[in-house]
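Entry for the shared binder. Reason: the reviewer on the internal report wants the predicted structure included alongside the sequence.
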Amino acid sequence: MPVVKGSKTREVAGGIHELAEDLADSAFHNRDMAPTTRAQRKWGTKDIAALWISMSACIPTYTLASSLIDEGMNWWQAVLTIFLGNAIVLVPMVLNAHAGTKYGIPFPVYCRSSFGILGANIPALLRALVACGWFGIQTWIGGAAIYMILAVYRPQWREMPADWFGLNVPQLACFLLFWAINMLVIYRGIDSIRVLLNIKAPLLIALGLLLLAWAYREAHGFGPILSQPSKFDAGGEKAGLFWAFFFPALTANVGFWATLSLNIPDFSRYAYSQRDQVLGQALGLPTTMGLYSFIGVAVTSATIVIYGQAIWDPVVVLTKFENPVVLIVAMFALCLATLATNLAANVVSPANDFSHLWPRRISFRTGGLITGLIGILMQPWKLYSDPSGYIFKWLIAYSGLLGAVGGILIADYFVIRKTRLDLAGLYRKEGPYWYTAGFNPRAIIALLSGIAPCVPGFLATVELAQVSEIWIDMYHYAWFISFGISFAVYATLMGIRRSFDAAANSSS
């Protein structure tokens, strides 16, 4: 096992690196932040694919096409937009995963090479707060599924007053019950999540296809939505309206997994090889998102024929079944689906991010608890209640923040460092990533440069300011604009710094 000179690491196999020294005395190191060893790498292609199948096969994916169709797209335009958005976000997903697989480092440690050892807390907290919001939304969805199915047998629950933050007592109890289940699993650690994902992935695909078959049989086809035309004509003024709607819709769908495109090292650090992480993600992400969004459209279309109305919420569809066995299986499947998605997508990252704030005092488990508490305080039932705001305010807004972070990380790792990191230096104050008092000012400038053009459009969207139409148009491309600007600014500033350092070294 060769040791890489100057970096105090050894390459164990296939480009995988391990630390060759003990850093337990470092204030910026703990067991959860430490690089994974070869023995800890248990995720193959099927595990990575199962990760994405499990996270994508969920209620938000099922309903994702609804707002696109409501705004005028036909079914295949909506599903294609979702597929394209996920094919685009797959690129930064695979690129950022590379560092996790090569060096075994989690997302906050990956940020240290670009933002500085202390500055890494900035992108980590940005990612963590978004994850807390998503955690709350998914926990609300899971708790609401339990409530709605149990309310079939307790219809009096629906008549109870909503006295607790806009919820009635059974709603709040179901929400807190599902919250507690999430906390229990995260307490058991990352390997229990991997097992859960491997159980959920084939189960949810099978149940989704069974629901699709049921809808086709009961409606004698897939109903009117699959035959209705787009509201946008093939030419003329309405074609322009289509493109004006398509690009913000595409940006929103890129934003759907923009979070994971950053913290994917939290999972890829457990992969056997780069081939496993690339192939697993390519097989699992865009295909499942496309398939499950189509299932949502097709089943909803069939409900128009079966029940006389379009029912987008799969929980409501399942409550129509009178067979108690079907209801119990449905409740178990929905809870499992939401639980696995929530833990993998919305707890692992902020647990690591909060741990990164104070490695000596905050563990992965404590970070998970902090995530859960913030998720409750955000009152997610209010955030999720408006589908239009959910897509065009929530998804696009944070895509602008996280796109900027992604541009910096990729520029640093691939352009500036050519995928070479000093692994031990990522954990040492006196190492190469300390910069100025622990912060890299160039990364902060690049981050603000990428976010700034998206702010006026966001303020106009949430009706806090009136701005020129051009700012709103730019906001519709938030992820792309913030990613591109931050990438270019960071690469330029770091290139200038390297030129100065090279000149200084040559003169000395």
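Summary line for the report: Confidence is low (pLDDT under 50) at residues 1-7.
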